[in-house]
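Students often ask what a holo structure prediction actually looks like on paper. The answer is less mysterious than it sounds. You provide the chain, you provide the ligand, and the output is a string of discrete structure tokens encoding the 3D arrangement of the protein together with adenosine monophosphate.
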Amino acid sequence: METFSTIKQMRSASREARRRGLRMGLVPTMGALHAGHLSLVRAAKAQADIVAVSIFVNPTQFGPTEDLAKYPRPFETDRVQLEQEGVDILFAPTVDEMYRPGATTYVTVEGMSDRLCGKSRPGHFRGVTTVVSKMFNIAEPDMAFFGQKDAAQLAIIRRMVHDLDLPVKIMGCPIIREPDGLAMSSRNAYLTPPQRQAALILHHTLREMKSAFNRGERRPAELIDVGKHCFQEEPSARLDYLQVVDPDSLEAVDEIAAPALVAIAGYIGTTRLIDNQMLKP
Ligand code: AMP
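The corresponding structure tokens follow.
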């Protein structure tokens, strides 16, 4: 595995791969890798000839009071895992390399970026779409792999690629969970053992809503009531949002006649976790 920290190195490796007729798959991450990230790497290995993984804790997607400084950065462990997975290129630029002094240009998907996490984390999706479009320009991948875990992010990136005619195929990959159902997340590392237990409430809430849906309930408002009722059973958790939305536009739906996305975000202590599931009539 080659490790690059400069844009120049990454771009010339990508151009060289293209010259040799190889298709590149890119897996953008913020590191602190877990089995969810590795599932994207494996999907990329299965479909691309050459796999690049980026590790970059992107400051522009963190709000001023968020966890940028304390976000876990176990770089050496990450590097070893990627090496073992047979990744070809690790791209790990510094903040100064990615954002040159005086940079003031952003990419924004308007409307969608203010929904779900975008509402509680103003500017978050603007940071995501900006860094992802930079990654696409630097690595010039044929395809890029994202997790359904961040369903809103995936929908927004698909819209950006469509709207800007970016020459990259976006591949969505399923949510990887712990055996008890907790969606894997780098932020799970913040949880104390009792909080880790309490965090299951997100998964339980989605499960209860799915049961109601399977019993025939198609009204989002009723399903959300079921979910909120369930969520309240965990006193140490605080709900940020629970919504039933169109999976492409992220707009709230008033009846589930087509596949709908149930998205939840909640705080366990100061740790903010998200999860989601699709409901398919
Ligand atoms: P992050 O490092 O949190 O920015 O995530 C990098 C990529 O991994 C994103 O596309 C995420 O959606 C994806 N990802 C994170 N957690 C999971 C998971 N539990 N299952 C599948 N993909 C995930």
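The CA atoms of residues 191 and 197 lie 9 Å apart.
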